[in-house]
Amino acid sequence: MPKRTRPWSALFALCLGFFMVMLDISIVNIAVPSMVRELGTELTAVIWVTSVYLLAYAVPILPASRLGDRFGPKRVFVAGLLVFTAASLWCGLSGDVETLILARAVQGFGAALMTPQTTAFITHLFPPDERGPAMGAWGSVAGLAMIAGPVLGGLLVDQFGWEWIFFANVPVGLMALVLTVILVPDWRPGNSHRFDVPGILLFGAGLVCVVFGIQNGQTYGWGTAFDIIGAGVLLLGAFVLWQRANRREPLLPLWIFRHRDFSLGTASAVTVGFTMTSMLLVFVVYIQSVLGLSPADAGLLIAPLAVVSGGVAPFAGRLSDRVNPKYLLMSGMLALSGGLCVVSQVLIPASSPQALLPGLLLCGLGVGFTFSPMNNVTINSVERSLIGSASGIFNTARQVGGVLGAAAVGVLMEARTSASMMARANEAAAALPAESRQRFIDGFAGEAGSAVAAGEFGGVPEAAADLPVQARELVAQVTGAALTDAVKVAFLLPAGVLLVGVVCAVSLRGPIGQDRSPDRMTVTR
Fold it and tell me: Which of 67, 98, 171, 485 is the 20 to 30 A CA-CA neighbour of 199?
């Protein structure tokens, strides 16, 4: 006999798995310097550990939402959780960066299977008057996990090594699996969908080309990179044309964008995904490579941001049911952008960690007020029949933003560090004897300087190794100053991108006054 499930218990089980998914976007950032050193590789390669996860996460989300409609969200969620947990174990056992990147791709695929099922369950389990707090809780998990990643990761890397940021997923994943089996109802929408294979291939190939071109422009030369980016743009253009021409069941139903609030909310999600991924990567590079903090200390420095975000998000979720969510979203994004600008302005090579706290706290306030209202205003703007597609598109958009953010900020950091390093080297050389100046400057030119700029944290250019002790001490000062110059600029990139999201939020109609979903139905286990 059908019986009513306990929706909050079911949501807790789903959010535990979703927390791991979001945590693994940001937790790798804190381990970047350790990975570079212990795997004997460069910053560009290690950024692929994040980028490939986001790519493998973003591309399959849309078809994964349809898998949930056909086979049941619970079954697809459990399958994704098993893949994610097993891939986490594989990541921890990886002995080289190539194997780690491959394992992270599999982990991202598991994450893609899980994510759209969580939002589908929220709209199914909760009636309209309870959906705001539920979406608030879900948004809190997303925001808190992104911020908590460096905090938890710092403790794990410091005490046990970078491998444990992945090993820690295994017991949590098994716990989430047991709770999901017990607490989550076996709801089966039973909708039969076609799978747009050409659309999946065009979208995946186009996104990979764009990200690869952006992220590897410094490595292969920007002439080649722009050719690859251009090919990616053409493939994405072909994808859009195919979606218009496909009269059966396209991967991306373009007509859903006729809903004004859904279109603008999805655009905002791209900017938020871009910002969250890029700002944490930049911040971790600065506090570990310039300030010299250990991973644990770096994580603790970020902790106030996580505390503020986690405390504010549930309140923002409840408030978004009572006031127009667009104003909460605008306030959150403005606070986050302002916080990044504040952090950028106080950075110097010898900054006190405490000097960063005002900007970080403002960022935490912004994150707390962003996720829940953004989810509410976007997903609840469409009819119930479109919820599956809407949640898939929304989550894909946020992850695409994250992919582009990681790639863009990585190449910006590398380019700005290289450019600043020569200027800083010329300034520092004035303190050396005349006969040592040119050799010192040459040590930062060409491949030697690029190696440091690419992320060989604390590396010393070979040409400077045989210089006087005074010169070798100046090397650390030059690299620290150059990284600081790059970080100051890099923080402004997500701050600027986020302002585009603010413009989208201003244009939202809101409020979400008319819920278009029928009342909650009895669900069965």
Answer: 98
